[in-house]
Amino acid sequence: METLNSKTYHAAVYLRLSREDGDVAEGSRALSNSISNQKELVMDYLRSHAEIQVYSVYTDDGWSGVDFQRPEFQRMLSDIREGSVDCVVVKDLSRFGRNYIESGRYIEKIFPMLGVRFIAVNDGYDSLDGQYGNDMVIPFKNLINDAYCRDISVKIRSHMEVKRKNGEYIGAFAAYGYLKDPEDKNHLVVDEYAAEVVRDIFAMKLAGCNVKAIADRLNRDGILSPLQYKRSIGIRMESPFQKGAEPKWSYNAVLRILKNEVYVGTVAQGKCTTPNYKVKKRVYKDKDEWIRVEDAHEAVVGRGEFDLVQVLLARDTRTAPEREKVFPLAGMVFCGGCGAPMVRKTVPSGGKRYVYYVCSGHKSDRASCSSHSFSAKKLEESVLALVQTFIGKVLALSEAADIVSRTSGMELGAGKIESRIGKLREEAENCGRRRKNLYEDFKDGILTKEEYAMLREQYQEQAAGIEASIVSLEKERDGILAGRTAGLEWVESLKRYEGVERLDRGLAAFLIDRIAVMGPEALEVAYRFGKEAEEMERFVLEHGKEAV
Question: Mind listing the domains of the chain with CATH numbers?
């Protein structure tokens, strides 16, 4: 009969190091020095234990001790179940794992059940002779290792939170169109080649192209997909979105670019989290919980251009299979009776095809509303005429407002008002500071209770008076500035459309908020900048005479 002392064990030498342990080179899977040290220590131990033969070495370099789904750990378990391994040797308990519940389950339950000898060299633990007092130490050491991991997790989360709030980019790879700054890995710099492709994508969308058509055009032109491009410049990465051996541009790839605020210089991070350091399941946060920092890096597209694309994406309807572009007024036309969207309907007649916009509410329920039909050709012609009139009116008002503002000295007046507002805000801060100091004086016995109450009331009244003055001056300033149109982004954009002869998707989305079809000949167009135009007109009417 074989005794314990005569038995030969086939050992798994298990080595582990995580990034949290601070000795794994970033972006590298090469064995670290600490891994080498672990191996040397274990092998030195085994030289004095002839009954233990090494079956295999299992190395998880860069894996957290909390995660027991480590690939090499799982390979070791497989070899144990197959009967190839009946002994596990580690440098110490922390290398085995840092989850005290899971570590305890393996060491105290699973390994004994499978007849596996467990040795932690530096902890002086060997399950063969650990039946007495030594076994009591193991749960406590596992608990300490777990607490260490929890502490590290808290510190890492806190550190990452600070980086996010500072606008530092902490993603593993830069977004397409950018590269990581060689001098600062948390800062993005423009990759001009890819950035130009991004600009083309936004331009195509503004021209009315649907997202699939953009993807098809990029593939047709031989433009490398984001993943292909990154690999071509030496960036080794994998993507969960990859489909096929040679990934191409897809609908979703284009859509992700069109929706990504990174291209206007904004870093939006902290979109998801994990419940705790033991649970790796991702929990996605609400959008208002994201950490957003504007102007964190150079923009590739303008904010106005980006915002307009978001409007287009929200309004876009499906296109016919043979069309690449969305109809100019798609998603903007509504029934003036019931408010339901108007939809395009093709009616063949006399060998010709006529297209109409009809009320979708009437189409689904004839009793709910009348058809409110409107010829598509006539609709676009009528809207174009209204848009031309609106643009001409706004540009004329803009010029008049600028003249009034300059000749009346209003711009100078606005500057003086802004200066007064600044001084009042300083005074408000001083008042608040003095009011806070009152309590300290009262506590120190400098002021009586009655004096404290009287002075506090006086300061409160003073603060309220200052705030009222600021509000009044801000209103006066805003009224003056309403007439200063030079440099306003939307006015400058309108100038590009002066004399426009064709209604395209970009112009319609930029200028039109909603079109209401009131009848076969009646339209009402609500413009995105209608209120601004009305304010401009009011300014010219009120101050035009003063400037003469």
Answer: 9-163 (3.40.50.1390), 178-315 (3.90.1750), 328-408+472-548 (no CATH)
